[in-house]
Amino acid sequence: MNRLSRRSFLSATGGILATSAAMSASRDASAAPSERVRHAVIGLGGQGSSHAAAFNEVPGCEVVAVCDLDPARLERAKGKLNKTGELKTFTDFRRLLEDTEIDTVSVATPDHWHTPVALAALAAGKHVYVEKPCSHNVREGVLLADAAARTGKCVQHGTQSRSGVGIQEAIQFLRSGALGKVRMAKAINHQLRGPIGRAPESDPPEGVDYDRWLGPAPVHRFTANRWHYNWHWFWDYGTGDIGNDGIHQIDVARWGLGVGLPKAVIAAGGQLFYDDDHETPDTQVVTYEYDECYLLFEMRLWTDYPLEGHDNGVVFYGDKGKLEVGRHGCDVTFIEGEKKHIGEGSDFGANVRNFVDCVKANDPSKLNAPIAEGAISAALCHLGNIATRVGRRLHLDAAKMECTGDDEANRLLTREYRAGYELPVVP
Ligand SMILES: NC(=O)c1ccc[n+]([C@@H]2O[C@H](COP(=O)([O-])OP(=O)(O)OC[C@H]3O[C@@H](n4cnc5c(N)ncnc54)[C@H](O)[C@@H]3O)[C@@H](O)[C@H]2O)c1
Prior knowledge:
Layout: H1 8-13, E1 37-42, H2 46-57, E2 61-67, H3 71-81, E3 88-90, H4 93-97, E4 104-107, H5 114-123, E5 127-130, H6 138-151, E6 155-157, H7 165-176, E7 182-190, H8 210-214, H9 240-257, E8 264-270, E9 283-289, E10 294-300, E11 313-318, E12 321-326, E13 329-334, E14 339-343, H10 348-361, H11 371-390, E15 394-397, E16 402-403, H12 407-411
This protein binds nicotinamide-adenine-dinucleotide (NAD).
Nicotinamide-adenine-dinucleotide (NAD) binds at residues 42-48, 67-70, 73, 93, 108-111, 113, 131-132, 158, 160, 212-213, 215, 228-229, 244.
């Protein structure tokens, strides 16, 4: 399997060490976790609020701190958590990370902040649950997986399908050979996102640290679209829907096929449906080529009707039948027509509980969605976007972690970091 390799990025990024994706983490014996895990959530939008509720429900774990640079979101989170014990609040995540009473953090900010916050958290000695996609570009994922392996901390990725018991059983079923040779998987992401309209430049909301929200991204005046949730559709902050919902399906497809980085990527996409501020595609197709199989991704953000039995999901095609892994569970149809229901779909609560269990055991090797895997799935999303943007087939040299003979594509494997917002270095 092609993996993100420690040596590979040396050449591609001028001497910055990357990681072996294998979870050969050196265990940090000095940092034995407490029986009661004290958790903090950074970024309190819809997903951060779900994190706060989910972590608070895990026995032996307590949310003790929350952070958002939008004071209104901070207030809302305080109200929702309705805690009797103390809840520390922060508007600057760096101050939160200085708090030695905090063991673990969730990173549920927009994508362009995932790796910077996660690296800073590792540097501060915390275990990290980082939302998907863990990175805003390929290089960030490499650095994050490397830092996780070197520190020996638990870093769980927000690809919670990996904790769904039904999906785990479906992957076992694929491995058993019961579907024959599986030479193709199709990851489908289609849903009705709706248009976002056109938002004029304006002042940011009162009390918000908008410069920090922009962080490493170039300065751009505030608009209501370059802000909560709709940032997903701007390259400076988001990764489009391939990195938003598509990553869940791509991660399962890659897991089922048992593949890592592809040898080549072909893609096309654009804004074919909505006429609005979107920069990222509303329609996209990507083919990832491997020696023995193809992984296809298709995305339509303008339908919400089930096709092929489901809306979002993955279809694995073998010579004896197909396996569908969708929101409604995992189902096999054999060529002769026989059907078999394997189990249900993804499980966010189980992914959170698995993370807390690993933290208590101080053992990243038991993580269901380790960052080493998450970084590869995120890399596939980034490569799909790069191939779409440059409009050419990418030939990936996984050993060097570069696209052979394609300077324009290679520049998009990383980004320019605004002064004052460079990536933290994890010792
Ligand atoms: N795993 C899943 O199924 C799933 C589901 C939904 C969202 N997500 C992910 O969760 C993340 C958040 O999504 P959302 O819909 O809640 O987005 P959102 O924009 O609504 O919320 C993000 C919050 O982070 C805050 N923030 C931004 N920069 C910050 C910083 N430097 N420090 C502190 N706070 C900061 C913002 O003010 C905002 O309140 C996204 O990356 C998304 O992909 C994952």
